[in-house]
Amino acid sequence: MQNVRLVSLLLVVTLLLAACGAPAAQPTAAPAAGALSGQIAIGAVWSLTGAAAIYGPSQKQAAEMAVEEINKTGYLGQATIKLITEDDRSTKEGAIAAFEKLINQDKVVAIFGPTLSNSAKAADPMAQEKKVVVLATSNTAAGIVEIGDFVFRDSLPEASVIPNTIKATKAKLGYKKVAILYGDDDAFTKSGYDAFKAALDAEGVEILATETFKKGDTDFSAQLTKIKGLNPEAIVVSALAEEAAGIMSQGRQLGIPDSVRFIGGNGFNSPKLAQLAGKAAEGAISGAAWFINSTAPGNQDFVKAYNAKYGANPDQFAAQAYAAVYIMASAIKHAGKADGQAIRDALAQTKDMDTVLGKFSFDANRDPQHTPVVQMVKDGQFALFE
């Protein structure tokens, strides 16, 4: 009888709580994080050495910081994330070796990276075949998510950012004639060129010359001398930061005036650009997925925490890696299990999530949806273009 009375009392309390608006239990389609336990192995492949080492270290630091925060707060209940980081040495071969290890030896359920689009095109098919989720954090070239339905990215593709950059800069600067300089042997820089050309054509801007270079080139004097002789009103550059810095420095040394602005894509969005090019980088403009002074929820806390931990401000590549870890953790929590297919399906449902990048969603093609910005180098730092 006492047991019956106790059950009845509990039922009454439950009904009263429901009537007062107490939160309902999570639906079975999205189990509570308490259903998760143990370590969940996730891989990360960054360019920590080699030509793209300008970008990789900040990605690694931000991802590690996000994992520490998530594990400390118990966001995944009894489970924690074990982040296994590999260096792809900025090469396709390095990325392939890293993916092979992470997938076959470490048995990861997901992988962040790799840093470069060239590397992603070489390595991502391996993950797709094994149904291991990939969340790219800096791949902006065309043809990335097309690799397969297990491949996502939180890095806005150049095709989404560049048209906005050209529209905004043409309206403000009023240029009508430009020259283009791009790397023709890299998926990222070639994709950037394609997007720039389409955007310039759409805005009715005349392209006076199109010059190319190879990855690792250090002498751009021939191309820049030709461009200077044509008197462009702006120079559009699709390059990684190291080559971009060399182009800017040599262009100014050859006498291309400061009034002729350099306009670039995602490769410009590292503080290393201004460090390498110095005063030659002043006024350089680029489209970006993130701005350091953004008021997006949690962004200023992220900036402060990153600076306190690493002694420097984060860049866009750090912000995208940091956001990616939280996006992945949210998908794992909603999947309710460390299973590739379940995580993939939950990730695809990400919509209007508050991140340091702003309100974030994946579209039907697993590409990111959030608002880009246009920024410029001012006094050696990034500022909004205006």
Task: Throw out a few tags for this protein.
alpha/beta; Rossmann fold; 2 domains; disordered N terminus
Structure description:
- With 386 residues, this protein is α/β, with parallel strands linked by helices.
- The chain folds into two domains: 33-156 and 294-371, 3-Layer(aba) Sandwich (Rossmann fold); 159-288, Rossmann fold.
- The chain contains twelve helices and 15 strands.
- The chain has helices spanning 2-19, 56-73, 92-105, 117-130, 158-173, 187-202, 221-229, 241-253, 272-277, 299-310, 316-335, 340-348; strands spanning 37-46, 78-87, 110-112, 133-136, 151-153, 177-183, 206-213, 234-238, 261-264, 285-288, 353-355, 358-362, 368-369, 373-378, 381-384.
- It has a seven-stranded mixed β-sheet with strand order 7-6-8-9-10-14-15, with helices on both faces. A five-stranded parallel β-sheet has the order 2-1-3-4-5, sandwiched between helices. It has a three-stranded antiparallel β-sheet with strand order 11-12-13, covered by helices on one side.
- Helix 4 links the parallel strand 3 and strand 4 (133-136).
- Helix 5 (158-173) crosses helix 6.
- The protein is globular, with a radius of gyration of 23 Å.
- The model is unreliable at 1-32 (pLDDT under 50).
